[in-house]
Amino acid sequence: MNQTIHYIWVDTNQKLADVCQKAGQKSAVALDTEFIRTRTYYPKVGLIQLFDGEQVSLIDPTTIDDFSAFIDLLANQQVVKVLHACSEDLEVFQHRFKQLPTPLADTQIMSGFAGVGGAMGFAKLVAHYLQIELDKGASRTDWLARPLTEEQLQYAAADVWYLLPIYQRLVVDLDGTRWQNAVAEECLALLEKRQKLPNSAKAYKEISNAWRLTPAELAVLQVVAKWRQEEAEKRDLALNFVVKEQSLLEIAKIQPKHTSQLLEFMHPNEVRIHGKKLLLLVEQGKNMAVEDYPAPISRLVDEPGYKHSLKLLQQKLAEIRPLDLAPELLASKRQLNQLFSWSIHGRDPAKLPELLKGWRAEFGQQLFAVL
Fold this sequence. Notes:
The protein has helices at residues 13-23, 68-75, 87-97, 107-113, 122-130, 150-161, 163-175, 180-195, 215-235, 239-242, 245-254, 259-262, 268-286, 306-320, 327-330, 333-344, 361-370, and strands at residues 7-10, 28-36, 44-51, 56-59, 80-83, 104-106. The chain is an alpha/beta fold.
């Protein structure tokens, strides 16, 4: 970094209101958050960075208790909120403020469609557009600690100071392409995805190797995984700090009746805190009516014709993809798998795969024809 960035420290309700009032008059502002997440289910925000094109503001969420002006700014439809690789930032905004930044422009998405590079990190984007090498030495900061050092504050300020001019350059570069609408749809999809809350009743499907279990075992896993998900949210504790994932799988397999069985594969503290509850949940799962058992979990790789179909899809993708777009932006392997799964599981028009919606649909229809 070849310069010192001037910033203001915002640590009162009035300062925040003043900063947000000025930012609300701009057409676009850069935003970022710094947070920690070690043992918690939700991220703990330690700093919010805002740049309105004139002033960098470092907002201290540990001392401010009235965020109404900031929430209004997040919701202001006249101001584009510019972030980079923002999925985790969106989680911060949703959990802490119950408001996502709209309209949204994610410069990582923009850079992919502008031909700069897909999934490009912020430091590489700064180097590409501004020929500046960022110092990332403060990236492992405890952002809840106070006071923060000047090095840490400069690091945080840089994340928005350089973001806005890069966004402006990307807007110009995208103007020379046909992908503006695709970028807008992708940014909107980020917001829509963040608004989908986890379904605790389906948490068992996220457990590694759950596909190996029988329906009777899955019935137990569904009950204990649902409890763990809800316990994690209630106590704001990371899932594996409630009960480890592998332990849930073992519980579903052996369906223990005594805490002594739990002690064979669980830490004594886990058994002391949750043992009796887990045994009750096991009985609840075992008492489930057979007709209510979860269906066996099938893996796509085990479906007849999967490998052949995926190869055909990848060949077709190489054939039809636009030369000015990276193939993974048009159709990732996850999206190809989604299309294949939809094609063999009922083809519900109410649950169209991503490749048959929006800007991808014209290409997705050609891919679907292969199946």
